[in-house]
Write a structure and sequence with these properties.
The protein is an alpha+beta fold. It is 22% helix and 38% strand. It has one domain. The longest helix is centred in the middle third of the chain and has 17 residues. The chain is elongated and about 45 Å long. It starts with a strand and ends in a 5-residue tail after the last strand.
Amino acid sequence: MRFRVFLEGRGLVLRGVPEGGECHYGFFATRMVRAENARVAAERATALVKEEARAIAAADINQVHAVHVVKVEAMGLFDHRPPGGFTFFPDEADA
């Protein structure tokens, strides 16, 4: 089965953000994964997002933020694949 997984992350410190500026960010991400069930889909999507975030994080991704699943949806036959990437927002709770 195919699933669309919506995720939220917090406390990400991005590479290349100037010192003294706002450097902690949260993000939203959506990933499409194939899995046997929703639990496995959530695990796979979380692992994908953490791996992608490692490339843009200024510190060890496992120490600076948490990623949690917001929602998991089964995709229909004609559902399109969502784009990858991240939508960032200032993480005031972690700044």
